[in-house]
Amino acid sequence: MRSDAVAAAPHGTGASIPLKAGALLGVGAAKLISYFAQWPTLLSAPAVAGSFLFSGAVGVFFGFYPARKASRLDPIAALRYE
Questions:
Q1: 31-37 long-range CB contacts below 8 Å, 24 or more apart?
Q2: Which residues contact 29 (CB under 8 A, 6 or more apart)?
Q3: What is the tens place of the pLDDT at every residue in 16-61?
Q4: Alpha helices, DSSP H only, in the chain?
Q5: Per-residue confidence at 1, pLDDT binned at 50, 70, 90?
Q6: Which of 10, 25, 30 is CA-nearest to residue 55?
Q7: Is residue 24 within 8 Å of residue 51, measured between CB atoms?
């Protein structure tokens, strides 16, 4: 069982690092726009959480759908198509 947990660990950390970096860049961009343009901005925790959930759902869908479609193909027919 330990090898399964070790094999799955990079997938969790590999996905969370870009999400956190994107959130920090988004907050930073909002603060910069607010400062230079003199526009008031409001960042709320539910908005940030919603963006995390939405981007995660998009990533899962666009990763899972092509993989499922490819898994249903006959490998010989798929290679012959190209």
A1: none
A2: none
A3: 787 788 878 888 998 899 899 998 888 788 987 888 889 888 988 8
A4: 2-37, 45-71, 75-81
A5: very low
A6: 25
A7: no
pTM above 0.90, yes or no: no
Q: Is there a contact between 58 and 65 (Cβ–Cβ < 8 Å)?
A: no
CB 27 within 8 A of CB 43: yes
Q: What is the DSSP letter of 72?
A: T
Is residue 80 predicted with pLDDT exceeding 70? Answer: yes
Tokens of 75: 């490998």
Three-state DSSP class for residue 61 = helix
d(CA 9, CA 16): 11
Nearest to 48 by CA among 67, 20, 78, 15: 20
